[in-house]
Amino acid sequence: MKFLTMVTTLNPAEAGSPPASLMQAIAQLGMEAGARMTENGGMSHTATVTIRKGALTTDGPFAEAKEVVGGFAVYELPSEAEALAWTERFMDLHRQHWPAWDGEVVIRQLHYFDPSPCAAE
Hints:
Blueprint lengths: L1 E8 L2 H4 L4 H14 L3 E6 L5 E5 L2 E5 L8 E9 L3 H18 L5 E8 L5 H4 L2
Antiparallel strand pairs: 1-5, 1-6, 2-5, 3-4
Helix pairs in contact: 2-3
């Protein structure tokens, strides 16, 4: 099973930039995860596209945000419990190395669909 984790900083103005020690600790955690972490990286909030009552709207790009989705990782793991355990280890690194940071990680199981029926049309 694959799981996507998305990290959100809830207080970007107060937290500032992540310390180098946190980034080193996250890199070490990624090496420990090995093949179980299939990809990771940073993200920035570029725009939001919404449909409400049939109307399409686009908001962004954003110069300032109250919450920032800053990064993601994809893990290939045998269970939701193991995805939660890796995420808790990741969050504990933030508590240790960046005490001013308030944030959350959302865990989503990924489901893949075969696009081949769409290609045949």
